[in-house]
Amino acid sequence: MVEALLAQGREVRVLARRRQHPALQGLPVEVVKGDLTAPETLRQALQGCSRLFHVAADYRLWVPDPATMYAINVAGTRSLLQAALDMGLERVVYTSTVGALGNPGDGTPGNEDTPVTLADMVGHYKRSKFLAEQVALEFAARGLPLVIVNPSTPVGPWDSRPTPTGQMIVDFLNGKVPAFLDSGLNLIHVRDVAAGHLLAEARGTTGEKYILGHVNLTLAEIFQLLARISGRPAPRWRLPYYPILGLAYLNEFWSTWITRRPPRIPLTAVKMAKKYMYFDSQKAVRELGLPQTPISEALEAAVTWFRRHGYAPGQA
User: In the CATH scheme, what architecture does the domain 34-176+186-216+279-293 have?
Assistant: First the structure.
């Protein structure tokens, strides 16, 4: 996002929890130290700004204390958007997720209008992002010139945490994925997601949602692509769902009450895998001009970045 904005010649200010963020080194941006859970820092960061891209979130499939995630994703979003409304910003782009949208789960792609309720959300991350999206829609109705984008599964460089998707790739590169569940995802190059944010700012309709996605693939197809790119063998065994679900419950209990460390088999991930998380991004392609980089390029960029930065062995 920052690189895309700078390429347009924009002046960029970044709110971050630390001033020396590795992704921002050498970039001509102003970094303001702050936190979504500290409302006073948000108003300071917005001083003199005309546009806001709210891309921050707590994205984890397991948290020792779920209240922290809601404080960041829901209350933090409300505080930031209230500040943006009070200060009269000209445009706001809020980053939601396809996880907050409806999805038939049977391989039929969901879209921006597929019916959905809070009861459909699996896990605290999806619940918190669903509630945060409702906050964003509330502020759009109150007059904030806000557009919502719903990225699917971004893949590419700079996934330094890494996200759950990035961790799946890292685990594959390290030979830690011997088998897989019968499921599927919608993938998109992370640079296309960044471009989609700027396109939503320029062309999006206030109060509308736009899915930033590209291609729907089964997990088996994703691992086959990763195998061709990386030279590592793809897993051959498809796991039965319910035994793995039972193991995930045990693993979650052990992590929550004993180790306080992330589970090896996140319960939320297993529950999500019961559905094919397929989505239709044609609205964003048609109305915004969302680019659609071949997903093989995105996976290759991710593999190269992870290897180059020591997450996995192999030729960078």
Answer: 3-Layer(aba) Sandwich (3.40)
Kindly report the pTM of this predicted structure: 0.94
pLDDT tens, position by position, 209-225: 999 999 999 999 999 99
Q: Which two tokens stand for residue 55?
A: 């891309």
Q: Are 251 and 263 in contact (CB under 8 A)?
A: yes
CA 45 to chain centre: 23
Q: In angstroms, rounded to a whole number, what is the distance separating the alpha carbons of residues 307 and 310?
A: 5
Q: Which residues contact 173 (CB under 8 A, 6 or more apart)?
A: 226, 230, 232, 303, 306, 307, 311, 312, 313, 314
pLDDT at position 26 over 60:
yes
| HSE, side-chain direction, 13 A CA sphere, residue 254 | 12
Phi then psi for 30, rounded to 5 degrees?
A: -95, 125
The structure tokens 């039929």 sit at 108
Handedness of CA 133, 139, 140, 144 (dihedral sign): negative
Nearest-angstrom CA–CA distance, 254 and 46: 42
SS3 call for 231? coil
